[in-house]
# Entry
Amino acid sequence: MTTFAPDSFGYPVAEPVLDAFRTVWTALAQPGRWWTGPERVAIADVARGAEPRDLGNPYPPIDQLGAEDDGDLSPLVRTIVERVTTESFRLDRPWFDRVVARLDDRYGPRAEGRYAELVAIVAQVAPIDHLCRVVGRPLEPLPVPQPGEPSQAWPDDLVDGGAWLPMSGPEWGPNVARGLGPVPEDNLLRLGLVMAMYGGVDDLARPVWDHRALARPQVELLAARTSALNECFY
Amino acid sequence: MFLRESSNAAGESVDLKAAVAAGDPDADSDIAHAPILLVFAESANRLADALPTTWYRLVDEIGADAAVEAAQVVSIFRALNAMADATGIPLDRGRPPTDADALPDMGFDGWVTAANTPG
# Structure
């Protein structure tokens, strides 16, 4: 069966968008820089099932979560994934610092890389799943994990750009394109989704669009209102 | 932000505070189909119970191709928001898409994320 088959949507999703989805799905199953294929798919599965918590049932403090795996992931990693997915607007620098310290204790140095890859996976799977939910399509089955070990390679061209994580260089564009510096391959996949679902570099350079179903101001109105709803400055 | 640039280029005006910050479908705007786009953005972002009804209204008003594009934009911006929040990236001053210098005019200083966003 074709992954993300065009006729599975019931509405006309453009082929470049479906191609970007398929590229993400193929890479999701492969080992990344810091997580194995089974771990990456497990992270995607947790993100897919994450639901916002009721006010009376908050997430436990990060220091109370077990760091040993009970399955493909630990309670610590599962909770990090859930919080990034469901309440990113509540995350702050002290929380991030504790997360990195806990991951560092469990896995060794360069834990920022593990956190960056986790966020990148959420940022790739969540928009695909969300689009499916909005148009009433069943979620695509997650890919079968592939064997192999993470490279644990740390990029040598990262800079301190004032974010929590080291950033890619300014040549990558605005900060929202640079913020996942430790995992450039996953960041490129994420940006591929952005270009397919929102607009590519050439599109963004043109204030007037006459080649798409929506005009540029309509797209930007949707984007700005979505960010406002999520209390995000981007 | 790109909304201001693109609406200016198209010769269209929009009340940013009413439309973007408050999501008021009756906000002053020359953008085509702005009221249903604002209602859809909220409904789709939250996967509200009213989403199916809103979706069919959207398809009827702007067509299926445009409705799918609208769904894509909401979906990818939710993920961009999560990534930005989870990495603490600073604002890009004087440069879209954030254009941080314009934000105080829109009343966003009271957001929870204002304390967590460097810049």
